[in-house]
Design goal:
It contains eleven helices and no strands. It is mostly helical and 210 residues long. The longest helix has 30 residues. It is elongated. The protein starts with a helix and ends in a 5-residue tail after the last helix.
């Protein structure tokens, strides 16, 4: 994966691929959107470190490196767009989708917890869910199926997208800066990403206290 993404870092297609993966993984949580973001950021840091060896080398490699801020902004925007797509789909899903959600205990519980959180003026659950495996899908679909107002959901979706993008890009960049643009840096960064996902999943499954 690192080699494949490395071949794309010299092309603006890296942004389109990352964005498409993030938008679609709200419907297909198995897509490696986090891996793509971390790997692209790792390549950025590794190339920057290599460029430090000489100005000429830096000039040769500059066109091969995705811009870090643009990568993070693209990831955050794609995250929000994917959330809104799932939200609108569930909003207009009709009786069939309502029955599917009713049969899923996970979706039903998340819908109830999300509704209570948004009603109290807080949506930290949306932010936590962005880091949990499939949590983003559960919360976005739950908010749409419950017909929560967009003004209640969108600000928290934006906060979640920015937090997740900053965390993922930061992991890749600092991992590549400290360990070099190789499998070690990518592996360490992904372990930290999975650890955050495990913690977020635990918080989502924890029974809600009064």
């Amino acid at each position: 994966m690192l080699d494949s993404v490395g071949l794309l870092t010299g092309s603006p297609w890296i942004y389109a691929i990352v964005a498409a993966s993030i938008v679609l993984d709200v419907f297909l949580p198995l897509l490696p959107s986090g891996l793509l973001v971390v790997t692209a950021a790792t390549a950025t840091a590794g190339s920057g470190a290599a460029g430090a060896a000489g100005a000429a080398a830096a000039d040769r490699m500059a066109h091969q490196v995705p811009d870090l801020l643009l990568l993070g902004g693209c990831a955050a925007l794609a995250s929000v767009l994917g959330d809104l797509a799932a939200y609108r789909l569930a909003w207009r899903g009709g009786a069939r989708l309502d029955r599917a959600i009713a049969r899923s205990r996970r979706l039903t519980v998340a819908q109830e917890r999300l509704g209570a959180a948004l009603a109290r003026g807080g949506g930290a659950l949306v932010v936590v869910a962005r880091f949990a495996p499939a949590g983003r899908s559960v919360v976005s679909l739950g908010a749409g199926a419950a017909h929560r107002a967009i003004r209640e959901f969108l600000p928290w979706s934006l906060t979640a997208g920015v937090a997740w993008a900053a965390y993922s890009v930061g992991l890749g960049y600092f991992g590549g800066h400290w360990f070099g643009a190789g499998w070690l840096a990518t592996g360490v960064s992904l372990l930290a990403l999975f650890a955050a996902g495990t913690g977020a999943g635990y918080l989502m499954r924890r029974p809600r206290t009064r």
